[in-house]
Structures are given as C-alpha cells and as structure tokens.
Design brief:
The protein has helices at residues 18-26, 52-65, 79-90, 119-128, 145-154, 161-164, 192-200, 216-219, 221-229, and strands spanning 3-7, 30-32, 71-76, 94-100, 132-133, 158-159, 178-184, 205-210. By secondary structure, it is of the alpha/beta class.
C-alpha cells in the first residue's frame, strides 16, 4: 500500500483527481486530493491574498494532518510548482515526486516566467475579476469532448499572484529517491515539451512523453492510476 497526495492545477480543484483516486483506493492505496485555497469547493476563500506560498501551505498541512509518510507527491500543471516547493521542504519524508505536464520553476523563478504568450489574457482577466485570472478555456487542453461541459462548470478564476510569486527552493528536492516528469503531448501549443526536454538532461529525473491531452487524470484515469501505482 502506498500513500499518495495528488495536487491539481490552476483554476481546478481536488475534483479533477476523482477517477484516479477511486481506482487507487480500490487497489488499497491511501489517497488525498487537497483543494488549494480559492479553488473548487474552497472558492469562497478566493482573494488577492492567495498566492503560491499559501497553496504550498495548503498541501503541507494536508500531508501533516493526514499523517502521510513515505508518500508519493503528484502535481499537475500549476500544481507542479506547488509540489516542487512542498518537496523541497519535506524531501526526507517522500518516496517519490511525480510532475504531470506542469511548470517546474527554478529557485527565484515564477510560473509567470513560463507563460508569456498568455500574459495579456491573464492580465485582462485579473482586471475584470479583482485580481483573479480567468481560466484558460478548457477546449485548449484537449479534454475528451464528453467531459468538457463538466470541467468547464467546475473551473473558477484564480489570483494572479499565484503565477507571479517567485518560488523559494533550497535544492533539497533533488535528494528525493525517485523523481519523474510526464509530458502530455497530445495538445498544444504547450510550454511543457521544453521542460520535459530540459529534465531529460538532468541527472536523477525519469521523463515520459505520452500522447494525450493535458488532463490525463480525466481523459485516461485507468492508465494514469496504473502509472502512479508503479511508484
């Protein structure tokens, strides 16, 4: 039995992991799917105070209160920046770090540094929503058509500060025994192919390229769960 903490991306919530979590739990694994402040069922807590640091604390507290040890920490999209910071602070307790099609900012960088083509869209959305960015249209992520309306009904604006705050890393996450990055290449244009290629040249990282949409946990829950169970 393995313990998993599955962290969602921007504008979404723990609900994106519902199918994968069910499969893993049915197989006997322990799974938590924390929702970041201001997203999903915690949308009532949204505001300009929400940033990357707060989301890191969200996940750290979920792990602490669920007493996870020797666990696999998984992030998706923006959530990869969140789990990178969590892993940097909790490396000694972790079995593996898995990042699925997401941002991997280095110390002193922000997700903002990797999203230049979307800056006008983010700024415009934040201006309309009191500092909260509009979700990127779900159609752009290659989601299965039958799930598109469901996903679009769940996403919510998120503070632009989450993208603009620089990450603080000590380098301790490099001591985690197993680190893997998955690039979902069946949609685009995507910023994540370049991150995959960079990590392919970085010692200590496994890299995988999979032909699927950005939301593998929604589009291919069985294969996604099977992949994670391998850690």
């Amino acid at each position: 039995m393995t313990a998993f903490a599955l962290v969602h991306g921007a504008w979404h919530g723990g609900w994106v992991w519902r199918r994968v979590a069910r499969i893993l739990r049915d197989a006997g694994h322990d799974v938590i799917t924390p929702t970041l402040t201001g997203c999903g069922e915690r949308v009532h807590l949204a505001g300009n105070h929400v940033n990357l640091s707060l989301h890191v604390t969200d996940v750290q507290n979920a792990i602490r209160w669920e007493d996870l040890e020797d666990y696999v920490l998984v992030g998706h999209s923006y959530g990869c920046a969140v789990v990178s910071a969590v892993a940097d602070r909790d490396a000694a307790q972790m079995r593996a770090l898995v990042c699925i099609d997401g941002f991997m900012p280095r110390d002193g960088e922000a997700v903002w540094d990797y999203t230049k083509p979307k800056h006008p869209y983010f700024v415009d959305g934040a201006g309309k929503n009191g500092g909260r960015t509009e979700p990127i249209p779900s159609e752009e992520f290659g989601i299965n058509p039958e799930d598109l309306d469901w996903v679009k009904s769940k996403v919510v604006p998120m503070s632009i500060a989450c993208f603009m705050e620089q990450i603080d890393l000590s380098g301790a996450l490099e001591n985690i025994p197993t680190k893997a990055y998955v690039h979902c290449s069946g949609w685009g244009p995507s910023p994540f192919g370049a991150i995959h290629d960079q990590l392919a040249e970085t010692p200590g990282w496994q890299v995988h390229r999979i032909e699927c949409g950005h939301h593998r946990m929604i589009d291919e829950p069985e294969t996604c769960a099977s992949f994670l169970a391998g850690f």
